[in-house]
Specification:
By secondary structure, the chain is an alpha/beta fold. The protein folds into two domains: 167 residues, Spore Coat Polysaccharide Biosynthesis Protein SpsA, Chain A (Alpha-Beta Complex); 85 residues. The protein is 40% helix and 25% strand. It is built from seven helices and eleven strands. The longest helix has 33 residues. It is globular.
Length: 257
């Protein structure tokens, strides 16, 4: 077995089908680890014969992905999210490598599809991700949000042609909701590390991100979508400090009881 596609899922029935369809003829098996979906995700997955379905309580993104990778039987692992779809050009590039691997790891250009449009500007682009690698040479860290893949020392990834289409947010409301969730997770991590709220940090990082995304990275060319990406991205830093301040307020109240 040459290639295992590995995904973790939770209530992804509305978008999992195109992801699995694009893997047909590319992946020898598809390992899915689900965290208790209630929306028919399993029914969608089991339409595809290569799928091996597992269920496990969610311990965090990185930990769940590492556990899922440990179930793979292929020489190489293609790690995807349920909202990511191989472009035809990327399918061909992977097939050209399969069985004739040139490197232990590969970088893939991920392109977001935001509110119905491909995003090829702003701080979301270009977004190179290591998603294809030999089994055993990489692991995910266990950060509470925006987990990162780490390669063994000395490994230099090779870049593949084609794009990985990331169907990120269908609406601005969905983007704001997810951004708020991530800000809460980040605040909790800072709180557990003993970090105090610091408003200067939010202004510095939020302002820098807004300027980079809208101006330096050309987000203005995207019209309202560029403004949305820049503003909502910058707001995450302010929300994080607000939630962190709230956690310390609750702590002080509890200690005063």
């Amino acid at each position: 077995m040459e290639l295992s596609a590995v995904l973790i899922t939770y209530n992804e029935a509305h978008r999992l089908g195109p992801t699995l369809e694009a893997l047909q003829g590319v992946a020898d098996e598809i390992v899915i680890v689900d965290s208790g979906s209630t929306d028919g995700t399993r029914a969608v997955a089991e339409r595809f014969p290569q799928v091996r379905w597992y269920e496990r309580p969610f311990p965090g993104y990185g930990a769940q992905k590492n556990w899922a990778n440990g179930l793979a039987r292929g020489r190489y692992i293609l790690s995807l999210d349920a909202d990511e779809v191989l472009s035809p050009a990327l399918r061909e590039a992977i097939l050209a490598e399969k069985g004739r691997w040139r490197a232990p790891a590969y970088e893939i250009l991920r392109v977001a599809v935001y509110c119905g449009a491909f995003i090829r500007a702003s701080d979301w682009y270009p977004d190179w991700k290591i998603r294809l690698f030999a089994r055993g040479v990489a692991h995910w860290d266990e950060a509470p949000v925006h987990e990162r893949l780490h390669l063994q020392a000395g490994i230099r990834p090779v870049r593949l042609a084609g794009e990985l289409w990331h169907y990120s947010y269908a609406t601005v409301t969905e983007h704001v909701t997810r951004n708020t969730h991530y800000a809460r997770l980040a605040a909790q991590a800072l709180y557990e590390a003993g970090k105090r709220p610091f408003w200067g940090r939010s202004f510095a990082k939020g302002g820098a991100r807004f300027f980079k995304s809208l101006v330096l990275k050309g987000g203005w060319r995207l019209g309202w979508r560029g403004w949305s990406i820049a503003l909502i991205g910058a707001s995450a830093y302010f929300l994080r400090e607000l939630y962190l301040a709230e956690l310390y307020e609750k702590q002080r109240s509890a200690e005063g009881e």
